[in-house]
Amino acid sequence: MQAVKQQAPSEALKGFLARYDGLRVRLPGNAAPRDAAAALLRDKGLPTPKEEAWHYTNLRSVAALDFQEPIADTQAGVDLLALLPKVEGPRLIFVDGRYRPDLSTSPDGLEVKSFAGTGVFGDLTKPERDRVVALNTMLTEDGIIIDVPAGFDAGFLMLAQLTSGRHRRVASHPRHRISLGEGARLVLLEVSAGIGEYLNNPVIEIAVAEGAHLTHGRLQQDSEDAFHLGTIYADTAANGVYDCFSLALGAKLGRTEIHARLGGEQAAVHLNAAQIMGGNQVSDFTTAISHDAPNCPSRQTVKSVLTGKARAVFQGRIEVARIAQKTDGYQMNQALLLSPDAEINSKPELEIYADDVKCSHGATVGALDPEQLFYLRSRGVPADQARMILVRAFLTDAFEAVAHEGLRDVFEHAVEQWWATTGKDAEAPAA
Amino acid sequence: MLEIKGLTAEIDGKQILKGIDLTIPQGEVHAVMGPNGAGKSTLSYVLSGREGYEVTGGTATFFGQDILAMEPEERAAAGIFLAFQYPVELPGVGNANFLRTALNSVRRARGEGELDAVQFLKQARAAVKKLAMSEDMLKRNVNVGFSGGEKKRNEILQMTMLQPKLALLDETDSGLDIDALRIVAEGVNASRGPNFSALVITHYQRLLDYIVPDHVHVLADGRIIRSGGPELAKELEADGYAGIIGEAAEAA
Ligand SMILES: Nc1ncnc2c1ncn2[C@@H]1O[C@H](COP(=O)(O)OP(=O)(O)O)[C@@H](O)[C@H]1O
Ligand SMILES: [Mg+2]
């Protein structure tokens, strides 16, 4: 066998491993998966661009930093609540990776358990293949565990992950598990936000049983100095629906990685997203959809709006197993570059082993149309508002995919807010 | 009101307008006719502030204000409206929203109060009805999937709502059948009055049977080569542009 040159662990990893050694006996649950994760990280380190899956997103800036343990400070969470979108309904609040029942309101008719209480890891993730998940596995302290009973419509629920890097550069690794029983329904709004420099590394495992329907909205509004590495593994049984829309606006460097499996006939998966970035932000949306059963549709509309020197990545992999005949896959990736220095990297990957499938994918890159801009301005609409209208129009088909009105309002509002604070000024036209 | 003196303009370094002199007093409707490529659309774009059209000389004032120094939206607020020869499609932008945004933008700039959704819809529905458009057009995306005639009517709808002091109508008649032409002309005529002027650009005399102009100008190769009353349009219809352009060349 070829000798593998072992790299000295990065600054960040040294800290993470040392923390694990110190915390090991106090962390909840079975130590075996955590030990395996630690061994893997010790051996291989954090992902690097030499690996195909990380070709476009370099974690060097994360690896170079020394992250601290969050201090349990009960005051800390309160002011962070102002970062949450204004939306009615039950909310489960995490601060620095720990569940805060004092700030949360439980949903009616649902039992909410915490990972800290049960310590049981799910079996959907692949920490041995994904070292960002391994990092979460090694260090996670808490998360939410929700089982929506069969046939129950749990309505709307917000799950918020707030992090404060104001006094210390902290890292948090929440670990959630959400299961929907047969025919159950849930609308979940997952929010990430915070202040200062920190790493937010949530992992969610999702199981959608037969005929169940999960609407999953993600709003990533982490601080402009933060790093966001979010991973989702979702498994959908026959006639089940996993409908996800992910809006990334925040973080200096962010990656959302979603692995979705269609495990029974007529299951449906939607992985739609919008990444709206400016300055030097980097945002990565990486997905892997596995069609493991016949007659399943999967849909992806991914839009990037980039100003300044922002860069976005979309990697969309669709695997169609031999058994998955009559698969109907659709993937569209579109970028709107509002500045000459903005950049989009995209990589669609189709791996098809069945012979009777319909898989289409397309990609476009463009700028704002000066003729459309002039048309709006000639009607009296000020230039910045005209640009916003066209940006919003560009996002239309991604937003239309969000069927839940309350969720759509949250996303629309977040985009308007982004425009008012960031987008508008970034793009005054060259005179 | 609108006073253009010695206006020259170029696109990509190519001179298109070669010295335009034109005055449109308040309340008057003037027609500009001329062959394809004469510079009629260029004149309308220069007056409404489209990028890429570089004014190299001359002046254009509107109520004494130098409009050439103004942004397109400022010109709109000042009361200039361009009905596009080729109206632009805006996928993802609803027509009603577009109209309301435009209307409230100019109202704000003019110091008038904004209209709420109910007030707006009332006005818009009335205007739509007058133009014999279906209400459905308010719900559709701006000009997307509209027929040629629907697009032109949509331009006139915007004009009616925005109540400009000066409308530049660039070949609003092209692509319209006779019924649509009549409706569009009625829309324009309904706006006529002491506070409304128009520059009606057309290739054909036909439109001027319905919107009878106070003056007619012939634009050829970037210059106004003749001006006269409505009878000039009839003369052009009978003799074509070649004769007039020839005369002008001889006279020069
Ligand atoms: N975007 C452009 N780039 C270069 N030349 C143009 C452009 N638009 C118009 N022109 C030229 O300018 C001249 C006048 O065009 P236009 O104003 O559209 O004429 P009209 O409206 O009278 O038919 C034509 O020769 C045309 O080819
Ligand atoms: Mg023209």
TrEMBL record, chain A:
Residues 169-394 form the SUF system FeS cluster assembly SufBD core domain. It comes from the Bacteria. Transmembrane segments: none annotated. Pfam families: SUFBD_core, SufBD_N. InterPro entries: Fe-S_cluster_assembly_SufBD, SUF_FeS_clus_asmbl_SufBD_core, SUF_FeS_clus_asmbl_SufBD_sf, SUF_FeS_clus_asmbl_SufD, SufBD_N. One of its GO terms (biological process) is iron-sulfur cluster assembly. Residues 33-152 form the SUF system FeS cluster assembly SufBD N-terminal domain. Signal peptide: none annotated. Belongs to the iron-sulfur cluster assembly SufBD family. This is Fe-S cluster assembly protein SufD. The lineage of its organism: Bacteria, Pseudomonadati, Pseudomonadota, Alphaproteobacteria, Acetobacterales.
From TrEMBL, chain B:
Residues 2-246 form the ABC transporter domain. It comes from the Bacteria. PROSITE patterns: ABC_TRANSPORTER_1, ABC_TRANSPORTER_2. GO terms for molecular function: ATP binding; ATP hydrolysis activity. Keywords: ATP-binding, Nucleotide-binding. The keyword Cell division does not apply. The keyword ATP-binding applies. PANTHER family: ABC TRANSPORTER I FAMILY MEMBER 6, CHLOROPLASTIC (PTHR43204). Belongs to the ABC transporter superfamily. Ycf16 family. This is Fe-S cluster assembly ATPase SufC. It comes from Acidisoma silvae.
